[in-house]
């Protein structure tokens, strides 16, 4: 089925798949088809090797040590910071903060920005397509400060209704938090426009880039984003590593989040002064090996080329939309014009759990349920969906396998 | 005295052994068992009849007739309904005492975990517990 692809692309794809050892196994005696990439991507060998290498040769605690290993570990850790800076085009590397994931990044901003800048009567805008981790921290902040949460609605395709956003914005708007791409539906949101409009009212904006980072170009300066978050494990990197980008002036003005080692400048029992950014927000010993290995993941993405990745994934999405959409009884959920490679659907009269379980029996890994977006599911009057999400190493043949299995399930259960 | 519950369990183990560990066939078979079970009336699918601890919705009701318990179950997912139907088959028309004393070993023997995963296995455990809770309640009723 790769006939439509130029030969060099097919060869490159084979080369890409070969780099992911986990993909070459059988599940229930069938070749593994991994379509749960929006939950977490698999890791190329170079990322795995880097973790082993780090612990085998360089392991030490970073920043404070004077010895050679500490120096090596620190350099490796800080190298990733510079790579992330380039990856998202931040103006300086101090604006890149390591966290343990997007959830922590958002919680950090909700607390540390909220503490200083949000007051009773203020309004915070989120959207209907948010993951719970970009809803709940803002609810908690609103409760703590007496602010109000407003929600941008979506239309039937799963696109934000921008006219409604315009109506929500006012002088009371203090903060806007939306995702770059939706994890449940794949919708790519018009974040540049969202940021511009928020800025006209003096509001600051956080973009949850968890679902975008592996697929879309990110340029925080061109976007004029105040905050941008992502998770390493969704970009072929290790779990337990996340990024928070923030504009220097904002990060400096914000209160500390967690306290402990690294984040201090000077501690006396009378008063503690805090370290400079980014260290002010990096209390405690971080996931050093994870951060170090994340560098390899980013290099993998950069070397593969985001444009090439987008081309492959768009091809897969288009093929899945046609192939799976053709199956009788399948109703796609989320039909936005611009999508990352996520195909979410329900099957008439069949519970998504049953489909997920049956697909697993065929070696196909998909996600079923509400995808941590219960308000969005309510908007579509459904309990959950089956979600197939594609990465750079997936193929059309794998979509064929899924389609064939899906047809068998539907035929049986009808 | 013959143990009717164990006889039924042995029969289930035998049936599943024919499937020879094939994942897909086994799940299809479980769903087929569920399809054979009559649907519950919509008005009986109440919050109160829901089994707690299951991710899917499972409704379970029990009635006492001539000292024996009959069960009525349904689920919003086909696999879970099939699993529930297996338990109904094992426990139906037994006395509360028989149900309470029963040791349910067939899931382990057929390697249920492998077919339905940990989450559903936990739910299956919750179902077994609910059957036994009904037996306790109905036993109390018998003794009043």
Count of strand segments of chain A? 17
CATH class of the largest domain in chain A: Alpha Beta
Class by SSE composition of chain B? mainly alpha
| Mean pLDDT metric of chain B | 91
What form of chain A results from the Cα inertia axes?
Answer: globular
Largest sheet of chain B: 2 strands, antiparallel
> What class would the helix/strand composition of chain A place it in?
alpha/beta
Q: What is the N-to-C succession of helices and strands of chain B?
A: HHEEHHHH
The Rg value of chain A, from CA coordinates, equals 22 Å
Number of helices of chain B: 6
Portion of residues in beta strands of chain B equals 5-15%
Please identify, by name, the CATH architecture of chain B. Answer: Alpha-Beta Complex
Quaternary organisation of the protein chains: heterodimer
CATH T-level topology of the largest domain in chain A: Aspartate Aminotransferase, domain 2
Q: What global shape of chain B is seen? A: globular
Q: Count the domains of chain A.
A: 2
What ranges of chain A have pLDDT less than 50 throughout 5 or more consecutive residues?
none
Proper CATH architecture of the largest domain in chain A: 3-Layer(aba) Sandwich
Strand order of the largest sheet of chain B: 1-2
Beta-strand percent range of chain A: 15-25%
Describe the 3D structure.
The complex is a heterodimer of chains A (414) and B (144). Chain A has 14 helices and 17 strands. With 414 residues, chain A is α/β, with parallel strands linked by helices. Chain A folds into two domains: 2-43 and 305-413, Aspartate Aminotransferase, domain 1 (Alpha-Beta Complex), CATH 3.90.1150.10; 48-302, Aspartate Aminotransferase, domain 2, CATH 3.40.640. In chain A, the strands form five sheets. A seven-stranded mixed beta sheet of chain A has the order 4-10-9-8-7-5-6, with helices on both faces. A four-stranded antiparallel beta sheet of chain A has the order 13-14-17-16, covered by helices on one side. Chain A has a two-stranded antiparallel ribbon with strand order 1-2. In chain A, strand 8, helix 8 (220-223) and strand 9 (227-231) form a beta-alpha-beta unit. In chain A, helix 2 packs antiparallel against helix 10 (288-304). Chain B has 144 residues and is mainly alpha-helical. Chain B has a single domain (4-41, 48-143), classed as Alpha-Beta Complex (Sufe protein. Chain: A). Helices cover 59% and strands 11% of the residues of chain B. Chain B contains six helices and two strands. Chain B has helices at 4-18, 23-36, 78-91, 96-101, 106-109, 112-143; strands at 58-65, 68-75. Chain B has a two-stranded antiparallel ribbon with strand order 1-2. In chain B, helix 2 crosses helix 3. Chain B starts with a helix and ends with a helix. Chain A binds chain B through residues 28-29, 350-351, 353-354, 357-358, 360-362, 412-413, and chain B through 23-24, 26-28, 31, 55-56, 76-80, 116-117, 120.
